[in-house]
Structures are given as structure tokens and as C-alpha cells.
User: Which sequence fits this backbone?
């Protein structure tokens, strides 16, 4: 059974940093791209970032480029979102998701339950 | 960047109704269009990938169509559990944008 479990959310002051983790199980982790998607309060889903299976290719939304980085440790079946210079507008539930490039056109076929990040003084 | 425009933003319908949600891309995305269902406090769920392929386990009342820039999600015979928000998502090129969502409510 595919499972994704986010951790690392919490309250942080504007300008601060936070690292989110997503632990994966139930599939061959290193062969899948992975993604982060967020939902701000009362808003829709926003794609944030993706990373290729080997970690060599990364992509970011314009709204986070230069502030967020994405990485993965395939030996630990875990990938990360390092968030720096956080702003109030980054307040959201952050979901991790498996990206199925091989079989389903890059769709996000499995999702975690989400972790809440609150940026406030 | 590719913009995804979804309509309507909200929709009221009754159990048993047929509803259609549309999504338009600002440039051609071939068939790289996916649809998700999202209920508050839960993980989003993939319904349709590659514009018209139904994800395993999704009821057959959900269907998708379209290619290029115009896409639709159709739900036939609405069930109580279908009242949720729906999002389109292009996976053609980064940044991989979502539509703004459609909230489907009970009439």
C-alpha cells in the first residue's frame, strides 16, 4: 500500500525557515518524481515544487523560486521542502504527492494528509 | 507559464443530476490534463489523468474529455459523496498549474 506521511509543519515567524519532510512507503521510491502542493486558508490548490526520481531535476512555482529548495534521500525513502524567508502568504497546508510520469502523464496519483505551516509573528 | 481557467467557480446541484465542469488552458497542453476531487481535511484524490483515463477505483460516473486547450469533467448521476471541490491540473510543463477550483454544493 502506497503511503505518504508529511512532517515538520508548525508556527514560524516571518523571515524564518522550516523544513518539511515526506516519508514514503509501499512503492519503489527512487523511480518516481515527487511533488509538493499547498492550499492556503480558503484558497485552492497550488503546485509548489517537484523533483525527479534521481534528484537531478527540480522545478518551482514562481511564488517560491529562490526561497524554497527541494531535495530527496532515496536511501531513506524521504524527500524534503526547505522553506526560507517565509512570508505570511506561505501559510498553508502543504501536501506531498507521488508524481506518476511513467504511466499517467505526470498526474499526482497518491497524496499525503498534509501538514500545516503558519507564518505569523 | 500556462494558465488554467476553470468554470464555474461554484455549482449547486441535486443528487442524481449530471454536471459538467470545464477547464481551459492558455496554450496547448495535448492531453496532459488531470482532475482531482478534494474534501476539507482530507488528501486530494486523483479522478482522471491524461484528460480521459479514469484512475483505478474511481466510479464510472466520472469521465473526462478534451485535448489541446479545452477539457471537461462530467459527473453523471451525482451521489451524496460527490459534493466536494474539483480541480484541473496541467502536467505538460513546469510550473504545473492548477485551475482555481469548482465547489460543488448540494441544492
Assistant:
Amino acid at each position: 500500500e502506497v503511503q505518504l506521511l508529511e512532517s515538520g509543519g508548525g508556527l514560524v515567524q516571518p523571515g524564518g525557515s522550516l523544513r518539511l519532510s515526506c516519508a514514503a512507503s509501499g512503492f519503489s521510491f527512487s523511480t518516481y518524481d515527487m511533488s509538493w502542493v499547498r492550499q492556503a486558508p480558503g484558497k485552492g490548490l497550488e503546485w509548489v515544487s517537484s523533483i525527479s526520481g534521481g534528484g537531478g531535476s527540480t522545478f518551482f512555482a514562481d511564488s517560491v523560486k529562490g526561497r524554497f529548495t527541494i531535495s530527496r534521500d532515496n536511501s531513506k525513502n524521504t524527500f524534503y521542502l526547505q522553506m526560507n524567508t517565509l512570508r505570511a502568504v506561505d501559510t498553508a497546508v502543504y501536501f506531498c504527492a507521488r508524481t506518476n510520469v511513467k504511466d499517467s502523464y505526470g498526474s499526482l496519483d497518491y497524496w499525503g494528509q498534509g501538514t500545516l505551516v503558519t507564518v505569523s509573528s | 507559464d500556462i494558465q488554467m481557467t476553470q468554470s464555474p467557480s461554484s455549482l449547486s446541484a441535486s443528487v442524481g443530476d449530471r454536471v459538467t465542469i470545464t477547464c481551459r488552458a492558455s496554450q496547448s497542453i495535448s492531453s496532459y490534463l488531470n482532475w482531482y476531487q478534494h474534501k476539507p481535511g482530507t488528501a486530494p484524490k486523483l479522478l482522471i489523468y491524461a484528460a480521459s483515463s479514469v484512475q483505478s477505483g474511481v466510479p464510472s460516473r466520472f469521465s473526462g474529455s478534451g485535448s489541446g486547450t479545452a477539457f471537461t469533467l462530467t459527473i453523471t448521476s451525482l451521489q451524496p459523496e460527490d459534493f466536494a471541490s474539483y480541480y484541473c491540473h496541467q502536467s505538460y510543463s513546469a510550473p504545473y498549474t492548477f485551475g482555481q477550483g469548482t465547489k460543488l454544493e448540494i441544492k
In short: DSSP finds no helices and ten strands in chain B. Strands of chain B lie at 4-7, 10-13, 19-25, 33-38, 45-49, 53-54, 62-67, 70-75, 85-90, 102-106. Chain B has a mean pLDDT of 97.
